[in-house]
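Give me structure tokens for this 119-residue protein.
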Amino acid sequence: MIQGSNIENVYSYYRSKKESHAESLKNLKKTIYHIGTLRLILIIGMIVSLWFFRDKNLTFLISTVCVCLFCFLLLVIYHTKLHEKRTFEDVIIRDAFFSSGSESSSDTLSPVSWCRSLA
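Here you go.
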């Protein structure tokens, strides 16, 4: 049947799109975790360096704090942008591609559910 083949093509297309979004979400979660760890290491490194160089002049200590806080601020901004992308990917996977054609909170059908209803 030609119609059945077309439905399977559409179904496989949306399944591959869902898998690519899931892979993107997995990579985003991993990157967010690494950025959070890097922020923690940066602050701990700043505190340790201030402890070891506490006998240096005040200008050196203030410049160390300013550089570390500037880097921390950049990492926070980057983390926020990544978190927005993660939220977007979550919404795409949850709302646009329903797993196994289940009903959702909205009244619209997903492409996968629509194709299954035709079969």
